[in-house]
User: Fold this.
Amino acid sequence: QLQLQGSGSGLVKPSQTLSLTCAVSGGSISTAGYSWGWIRQPPGKGLEWIGYIYHTGSTHYSPSLKSRVIISVDKSKNLFSLSLSSVTAADTAVYYCARVEMVRVYFDYWGQGTPVTVSS
Amino acid sequence: EIVLTQSPGTLSLSPGEKATLSCRASQSVSSSFLSWYQQKTGQAPRLLIYATSSRATGIPDRFSGSGSGTDFTLTISRLEPEDFAVYYCQQYDNFVTFGGGTKVEIK
Assistant:
């Protein structure tokens, strides 16, 4: 059974960089036809797509976050990572990692969510 | 970027009743790229439906999806106690967007 486990800093200061990692187990991050993505959810609000990466390193980002986001993949460790720079309080959210099925583009496996607070 | 508008914001129903949730797109969405998710409080979303009407693995057949163009619907034929949750639609048209969600609550 595929599992995704997110981890990273739960508290980030304004203007700094948020860094999260998602470890994939029960399957290979290099499986053809799937990308690996990030979605966030501010407290009490809906879901916002951040971006995704294919195991080749090809990335696709949300236009609203593109200037601040980097998603990377480490095939040797079977994990992928999110970096979000210049954070503000508006970036406070639960960050989910998920597998993306690339034919129909939907998120079929999700991590448990990593809460991140931006505060000084 | 395509905007998805879900209605109603909240649906108050009793167990056993039928739930009909709407997802309207600001422009036409390919039926191949419309999905639905269920999210319970404190949990990650769970995939219910992909490609408008295909149920994900393990999803009971009381959940069904339909629609085309700009109007899509998620139907729960008979609500079970575990179905009371928030539901989101999601589309892909070069970029991914989610609807704002519909909360199905116990009446």
Notes: The radius of gyration of chain A is 13 Å. Residues 28 and 50 of chain A are 22 Å apart (CA to CA).
